[in-house]
Amino acid sequence: MRTSQFFLSTLKEAPNEAELPSHKLMLRAGLIKKLGSGLYTWMPLGLRVLRKVEAVVRDEMTKAGALELLMPAIQPAELWQESGRWAVFGPQMLKMKDRHERDFCFGPTHEEVITDIGRSEIKSYKQLPLNFFQIQTKFRDEIRPRFGVMRAREFVMKDAYSFHADLASLQQTYDGMYRAYSNVFSRLGLKFRAVAADTGAIGGDGSHEFHVLADSGEDALAYCPTSDFAANVELAEALAPADSRPAPAEALRDVDTPKQTTCEQVAALLEIPLQRTVKLIALMAEDKLNIVLLRGDHSMNEVKVGKLAGMTDFRFATEEEIRSFFNCPPGFLGPVGVDRSKVRLIADRAVAVMNDFVCGANKPKFHIAGVNWGRDLPEADIVADVRNVVAGDPSPDGKGVLEICRGIEVGHIFQLRTKYSEALSCTFLDAEGQTKPMEMGCYGIGVSRIVGACIEQNFDDKGINFPVAMAPFQVAVVAVGYHRSEAVKAAADKLYAELLAAGIDVLLDDRNERPGVMFADIELIGIPHRITIGDKNLANGDIEYQARRDPAASLVKVEEAAAMMKAKLA
Amino acid sequence: MRTSQFFLSTLKEAPNEAELPSHKLMLRAGLIKKLGSGLYTWMPLGLRVLRKVEAVVRDEMTKAGALELLMPAIQPAELWQESGRWAVFGPQMLKMKDRHERDFCFGPTHEEVITDIGRSEIKSYKQLPLNFFQIQTKFRDEIRPRFGVMRAREFVMKDAYSFHADLASLQQTYDGMYRAYSNVFSRLGLKFRAVAADTGAIGGDGSHEFHVLADSGEDALAYCPTSDFAANVELAEALAPADSRPAPAEALRDVDTPKQTTCEQVAALLEIPLQRTVKLIALMAEDKLNIVLLRGDHSMNEVKVGKLAGMTDFRFATEEEIRSFFNCPPGFLGPVGVDRSKVRLIADRAVAVMNDFVCGANKPKFHIAGVNWGRDLPEADIVADVRNVVAGDPSPDGKGVLEICRGIEVGHIFQLRTKYSEALSCTFLDAEGQTKPMEMGCYGIGVSRIVGACIEQNFDDKGINFPVAMAPFQVAVVAVGYHRSEAVKAAADKLYAELLAAGIDVLLDDRNERPGVMFADIELIGIPHRITIGDKNLANGDIEYQARRDPAASLVKVEEAAAMMKAKLA
User: Fold this and answer.
1) Do B44 and A68 touch (CB under 8 A)?
2) What is the pLDDT of residues A124-170, one digit of tens each?
3) Which of B6, B74, B121 sits opposite A39 (nearest CB)?
4) Which helix (H) or strand (E) holds A112?
5) What is the pLDDT of residue B15?
6) Does pLDDT of A520 surpass 80?
7) What is the mean pLDDT of chain B?
8) A285: which strand partners?
9) Structural domain boundaries of chain B?
10) Superfamily per CATH, domain B253-384
């Protein structure tokens, strides 16, 4: 492609609303253009990147035996009513009525539709297993669309759904999808991590997320560098401390904390480690107050709390509810002296082994120190793992200590089991002639999100730094003086033709612009290899080669340039 | 691909609701599966066909210099309000509100969005011309979805939009699109015709439709076998008769027509040619009655009528309006004796030169014969071309006589001119620094409709008869006894590998089924070439080759089979 026949549209500054580097850079590079909140046009340059991602996803899915189909984006409400999700999916689902006032939605996902296909097309175990996938535009009406294509409302997703006669077959396909996903992200040149993920109401251990690693990632991931363990922090278990609780050594006493309402402030005032403090979080569940106690340096894990008996639909207590029960403002709350007949006390494992700790005194402007279980307050009603792991925690597999990194979720594989096949009567006849619901799996990749995630991982102050597999063009040939130098024009046209003939995805920058403008554009849009052809070097038979990720350029003989690029891209 | 790893799902009978052969065959062959009214899943077999069409469209658009992008499917109402189409597009547009109660639609077309992109991205004549295209899912809420993918609600469309500094540039791109469209349909192996089409309110002659020819086509096309003339019947001009009106020869007289209410019945009763009769059609426009007179054998052309002064928004008169004016029931209406101060009389050119004609008498059960202009009624207020051409009419280019065929519209190219650029202030600075609205063109192809149209043109009693370019597989290797004969398995696997290595799209039917079942499936789904490998022929070193379109099969040496297929597909 020649820039003169293409559409490059770069900006010096990104619009103010863009927060993340990838969002800013995608707008500045002209990969996308905003139509409305969470709605983006993929401009020709960006679509080239998106299509490259799609092609790798399609190839790996096909190699793994999945069959591509294409389901409608618009789905009738009836199927969602049958699965029970029409009422519960919430406002993320874009609903509409057709001209006959029938209810439809723009599919946020396709479990219902594929299960409907499965129940009418699959009759016998002989047809199983089957794995169908599609690459399709989806819509989720995010309450606050942001981060450009990373949390857009309309987006491109690869979703796959598999059908099985038994769990062993599901596990086999699931493992194949795990490998296929790993291949996809490896081939795209991304640093990524697969982590065990929460399976929610379905339970079991059949769910993994795939994350592109980036400092800006919304998800915290726990992994063990000396073992295979990796899990979303939501799921990673904080083991019970190995040591038992020491005996009380201090007397219980009030501490004057006139302005100190957080553990950090109290620890600083008392000049003690934060690990000696305990914080209290008040939650309501089933109309009852629950008190969660955490060590001052720990944070609550809502997924773990939600899995405790009676806590499925918990919410944070309101300030009004707190004041009514404790007769004290938030910031000074503590577990000592509360009416335990009216409240359930949930202590994190780490708190349950503490002695002589500091916590709120349940009166304004005071904390208490030297608090001890048994002596100053009854033991907790429940001791459980309710905190997020932190770096340095022991790995749950006992093979080292955890580290924490941040990731952007780009893939998720999940063993649905029989959730949808039972709801929609998607059954088959097994070898014994018995009717059974099919085991199912689902496997998603955020195709358009990958582009943003890749840029979060690959950028510098000049712009985007695409891996070769995702770059809009593999090579840029910058012809300086194309319109005034016959020699430059001849050399550039010849090299361009040679690279094209070698199947290389090359952009010939034949614009009548200053070199600085051309260089800046090529760097901003992230082309990994740049060859500059200008009169000065050409007089010596040279062209200049610059790798996007290398600091220095080098001179190469003009007749060797095509061979060099072929070798680099082989 | 092996059938054992693919998903074939054929039916003996099509669902009753399917009317057209293509709809029946697509369901029977398992190319598509219905989700709801006008909503179809493209099953793996069908998606292979759709993707082949997409690939050819994409390739020809790119070769013609168009740049692919991808605009959102969901569009904000504001742009449509700006163009004035939000209120007038009608119930075909699927409208919805997002979670913030803002209005959106599922884009039925993208003129507004692309014009919004153009106005913000294009500033100078130096950037022009530009031609953008996308291949995308669209939605139009048809009042009566039918014919499967041919008139579905959700469908795949290629839409392109071009921007220009002047009309000459638009014409150049338009001509390029005309050639690209011709290439697309030629490469897909379709018999098609490009015809001049109506430009509606925009006027001018810049619109062509591309039709796949098929007896079941909804559109009538007029063309001249001895010249280049071809036009949708909506548009084809019926020239004024060369001969002038003969003098009256008969006396005006009542004719008793007790049960004869149509020209056909009256002509039969009187034993005269239908061409001697005149029919009357009553239309309302601008609150005034208009009478259109047509020869008995002609039909009214509503597009032509709508272009007459004062007739833009005409409608047919109700029976009540007819009875109130004529004091006579429909079936016996005529132009003689009506109060011409209250009605406008529009005579088709053919009627204007008739003498001694027969028409309704304006009293029940009577017609009148021997009617003559001037003598029996005043000359018409307007003489115009208001009928559809018929086979045998002179070609408007004067180079022969017209024939009529039927077609399915699969493409449409259109010179929008400045309709949208003026409405949305999509302007540029020309070489003189003047601000001007851009000239625009739009170019659509019904990608998913092409699959149905192709089948309407290519089927027989065994099933679909795909052209090679659109077939889901180019070759089927049917291995009879694959699971019980080592020789068959070895020969089939070897040939399959050889064909795959040659880049041929081959399906190896390795099912454990009777030959009749396998043959019937391969014929139904329309694979153009079939090679059968069975023990009997293999004993003589032969395989059987059968072209889908040839009556007879032939024996070929097994070692020559791959070379033969390569030669046939070269």
Assistant:
1) yes
2) 999 999 999 999 999 999 988 989 999 999 999 999 999 999 999 99
3) B74
4) helix A111-121
5) 84
6) yes
7) 95
8) A288
9) 16-237+404-455, 253-384, 473-569
10) YbaK/aminoacyl-tRNA synthetase-associated domain (3.90.960.10)
Omega into B129 within 30° of 0, i.e. cis? Answer: yes
Q: Which of residues 440-469 of B touch A (CB under 8 A)?
A: none
What is the pLDDT averaged over residues B226-231? 91
Q: What does each C-alpha distance from B460 to B448, B464, B551 come to in angstroms?
A: 21, 7, 12
Residue B401 has a CB neighbour count (10 Å cut-off) of 12
| pLDDT higher than 80, residue B204 | no
Interface test with A, best of B69, B159, B447, B511 (most A CBs within 10 A): B69
Give yes or no for residue B202 having a pLDDT over 90: no
The yes-or-no verdict on residue A203 having pLDDT over 70 is no
The sign of the dihedral angle between the CA atoms of A406, A410, A415, A420 is positive
Shortest distance between the Cα of A95 and any Cα of chain B, in A, equals 7
Q: Which residues contact A302 (CB under 8 A, 6 or more apart)?
A: none
B278-286: average pLDDT: 96
pLDDT tier, A370 (very low <50, low <70, confident <90, very high otherwise) = very high
Q: Is A124 on the interface with B (CB under 8 A)?
A: no
The partner residue sitting opposite B41, judged by closest CB among A41, A42, A72, is A72
Residue A202, pLDDT above cutoff 70: no
Contact A47 B41 (CB under 8 A): no
Q: Which CATH architecture has domain B473-569?
A: 3-Layer(aba) Sandwich (3.40)
Indicate the range of A6-15, B466-475, B479-488 predicted with least confidence: A6-15
Amino acid at site B202 = I
B72 and A132 within 8 Å at the Cβ level: the answer is: no
- Give the pLDDT band of residue B90 (cuts 50, 70, 90): confident
Task: Find residues 75-114 of chain A whose CB sits inside 8 Å of chain B.
Answer: 75-76, 91-92, 94-96, 98-99, 106, 113
Residue B342: how many other CB atoms lie within 10 Å? 9
In sequence order, which residues have a C-beta less than 8 Å from that of residue A537 and are 6 or more positions away? A543, A544, A555
Residue A21's H or E segment, with its range, is helix A21-28
DSSP character string of A335-385: STT--TTSEEEEEEHHHHT--SEEEEEEETTEEEEEE-BTTTBPPPSEEE-
Q: Determine, for residues A47 and B35 on separate chains, whether the beta-carbon distance falls below 8 Å.
A: no
pLDDT digits (tens, 9 = 90+) for A542-568: 999 999 999 899 999 999 999 999 999
Q: Which CATH number fits domain B16-237+404-455: 4.10.520.10, 3.10.129.10, 1.10.287.130, 3.30.930.10?
A: 3.30.930.10
CB within 8 Å: A74 and B139? yes
For the cut 70, the answer to whether the pLDDT of residue A318 exceeds it is yes
- Per-residue tokens: A483: 């319109």
pTM comes to 0.92
In this prediction, residues A515-543 reach a mean pLDDT of 97
Q: How many CB pairs under 8 A join A and B?
A: 125
Pairing of strands B475-479, B506-509: parallel
Q: Which residues in chain B are contacts of A137 at CB distance < 8 A?
A: 73, 137
DSSP reduced 3-state for B277: strand
One-letter identity of residue B220:
A
- The residue written with tokens 């009309």 in the block is B167
* Alpha-carbon gap, residue B491 to B537, rounded angstroms: 12
- Residue A341 forms contact with B (CB below 8 Å): no
Token digits for A517?
């403008």
The per-residue DSSP string of B390-421 comes to -TTSBPTTSSSB-EEEEEEEEEEEEEEETHHH
Tell me: pLDDT of A86 over 90: yes
Residue A198: the pLDDT is: 80
Q: A72 and B36: CB-CB below 8 Å?
A: yes
**CATH number for the domain running over A3-237+404-455:** 3.30.930.10
pLDDT given at position B116: 98
